[in-house]
Design goal:
This protein is an alpha/beta fold. It has one domain: Ribonuclease H-like superfamily/Ribonuclease H (Nucleotidyltransferase, domain 5, 2-Layer Sandwich). Helix content is 43%, strand content 17%. The protein contains eight helices and six strands. Strand 3 and strand 4 (48-53) form a beta hairpin. Helix 2 packs across helix 7 (175-194) and helix 3 (101-108) packs across helix 7. The chain is globular. The mean pLDDT is 95.
Length: 204
Amino acid sequence: MTQIYFHEGDLPASVHFSGAVAVDTETMGLELHRDRLCLVQLGDGKGNAHIARFKKGCYDAPNLKALLQDASVLKIFQYARFDVAALYLYLGVVCAPVYCTKVASKIARTNAPSHSLKSLCSSLLGVELEKEQQCSDWGADELSEEQLKYAANDVLYLHALKEKLDALLEREGRAAYARACFDFLPHVGMMDIAGFDCCDVLVH
């Protein structure tokens, strides 16, 4: 049974993750410097989701920051490039090590028409996600149950997706490519903040 724990600001000191934690963010939009960070969601892979909500300008969260920087805990994202950049810009932390299910899928599943979380959950886990709340107001003073459920769903399935994708990467002999991309993602996020486009930088 899914359990959702809501926290204003930082995680309680009693909340611990070991091995790997699923991570996602909700922002006011997709422009990093304009659209502020509102939520950070964490999943333990066992059906529990912790949601930390940040009010505008209030990003003092030592427990969460310590977790995101803990080198012994793998951070699993769906679109790490954006989330890692947002966490660095607003919380001042460099997330490492990281794993990105979207990148893993693009490398392992080159025959797939989509690598979105909804598509991955449907194709690999047989789970159909509802996405109606994707563009809702994450900066609202009060968040609805539907918003909290949507936010939690973004981290509840990442551990299981990683397991499926790891098997595909190994089967196709592409795991090393994925690991190299994962290691580079924190740097990509910082370049995005600085205004560089990595794809453009690498073009002739």
